[in-house]
Amino acid sequence: MSASAPAFVEAVTPSPLSLGIDPVLVGIILVLLLIVFAIFLFIRRTLLSFSEGMRDGKRR
Fold it and tell me: Which key words tag this protein in UniProt (predicted)?
């Protein structure tokens, strides 16, 4: 057994852009934000259509 590190362990220097943040975590957060934004747009469209229908109903 040698005193040096095993062959499969390498010294990895992080790139300056990564800042030590896990890319998988960033991906999960982005997907969650997109889902929340899509839900917001869906609710907004539903409420706008509802209010437009109420206005059209009052005019008749």
Answer: Membrane, Transmembrane, Transmembrane helix
Strands (DSSP E) contained in the chain are none
Q: Residue 15 — pLDDT band, cuts 50, 70, 90?
A: low
Q: What are the structure tokens assigned to 50, written together?
A: 């509802």
25: tokens are: 């975590």
> Which residue in this structure is represented by tokens 């997109």?
34
State the pLDDT at residue 16. Answer: 59
Token pair listed for 40: 């917001």
- The answer to whether 14 touches 20, Cβ cutoff 8 Å, is yes
> Which residue type is seen at 27?
G
Mean pLDDT confidence for 32-48: 98
Separation CA 1–CA 8 (nearest Å): 15
* Residue 7 in tokens: 């062959």
